[in-house]
Amino acid sequence: MKDAVYANPFESLGPFAFNDDVASVFPDMIRRSVPGYGQLVGGAGLLAARHALADSNLYDLGTSLGATALSLSRHVRADGTRVIGVDNSSAMIERARGLLIEGRTAQDRPVDLVEGDIRTLPMHRASVSCLNLTLQFLPMGDRDLMIKKIYDATLPGGILLLAEKVTFDDADHAQWVQEVYWDFKRANGYSELEIAQKRTALENVMFPETPGAHESRLRAAGFETTRVWLQTLNFMAWIAIK
Ligand SMILES: Nc1ncnc2c1ncn2[C@@H]1O[C@H](C[S@+](CC[C@H]([NH3+])C(=O)[O-])CC(=O)[O-])[C@@H](O)[C@H]1O
Ligand SMILES: O=C(O)C(=O)Cc1ccccc1
């Protein structure tokens, strides 16, 4: 279904929320709003397949409709692995359950979907954890602990796949990237009104950081190797290896 959440003028624009209106158009919204989204999801499966360890858990934190969880489930072949997709939006998890039943085949790794907050989720024996565009929605003060918690739950040799919308320290570069990003949205059929209303709605909900801030946090948590594996405009993805 086509995303028209911000197509008409709002009298009073509330904060962006992952409610049923958003969940029902989410595949179209994310495809038209995140350059490189298809590569991000497909690539997560390939990287997970390479780094997954036998008898371990693969976490997709902020799974939305389960796209990344399904990609992990499809690509990973290591024995004794299961995928755990977690989201605190009941609208997302409900729809993800239906999509997963349709999408998973018998050869794929099993997937559990959990409705809950990733900050309080018990995690253990992780070999792959994905934060695909999710950390940016946590309050700034919760982010260090979240990454540390993932690090502590990760087996030696395991990985964290982090993808985020980013901003840049250099004001000119930040402005240029922002404008090209709006060009991308226009080219994907979003109107000026849609772009402006969504931007306002996201203002106190989503807080992008610089690449340097993410890399420092990953290192501070203990991840020794952190590498960028994908960047499209202002969307970046890292692999961090324990
Ligand atoms: N504290 C939290 N606990 C659990 N879930 C949360 C929390 N905060 C936000 N979320 C959830 O994180 C998801 C972020 S979307 C991820 C896309 C997906 N990874 C994809 O690869 O398609 C990214 C985007 O829409 O830009 C939403 O479903 C929120 O409900
Ligand atoms: O649309 C934006 O501005 C984004 O940063 C991407 C996005 C995609 C889906 C939900 C929220 C944000």
Automatic annotation (TrEMBL):
The answer to whether UniProt assigns keyword Transferase to this entry is: yes
Tell me which InterPro entries the record gives.
Answer: CmoA, Methyltransf_25, SAM-dependent_MTases_sf
Q: Which Pfam families match?
A: Methyltransf_25
| Amino acids binding S-adenosyl-L-methionine | Y37, G62, T63, S64, D87, N88, D117, I118, N132, R199
Instruction: Give the residue range of the signal peptide.
Output: none
Name the Enzyme Commission number(s) assigned to this protein. Answer: 2.1.3.-
Alphabetically sorted, this entry's keywords are:
S-adenosyl-L-methionine, Transferase
Transferase among keywords: yes
Q: Name one GO biological process term.
A: tRNA wobble uridine modification
Name the domain of life.
Bacteria
Catalytically driven reaction(s): prephenate + S-adenosyl-L-methionine = carboxy-S-adenosyl-L-methionine + 3-phenylpyruvate + H2O
Q: Per its record, what are the GO molecular function terms?
A: carboxyl- or carbamoyltransferase activity; S-adenosyl-L-methionine binding
In this chain the Methyltransferase domain maps to 60-158
Sorted alphabetically, which PANTHER family does this protein's record hold?
A: CARBOXY-S-ADENOSYL-L-METHIONINE SYNTHASE, TRANS-ACONITATE 2-METHYLTRANSFERASE-RELATED
* Family to which this protein belongs: Belongs to the class I-like SAM-binding methyltransferase superfamily. Cx-SAM synthase family.
General function of this protein: Catalyzes the conversion of S-adenosyl-L-methionine (SAM) to carboxy-S-adenosyl-L-methionine (Cx-SAM).
Listed under subunit, the entry gives: Homodimer.
- What is the protein name given in its UniProt record? Carboxy-S-adenosyl-L-methionine synthase
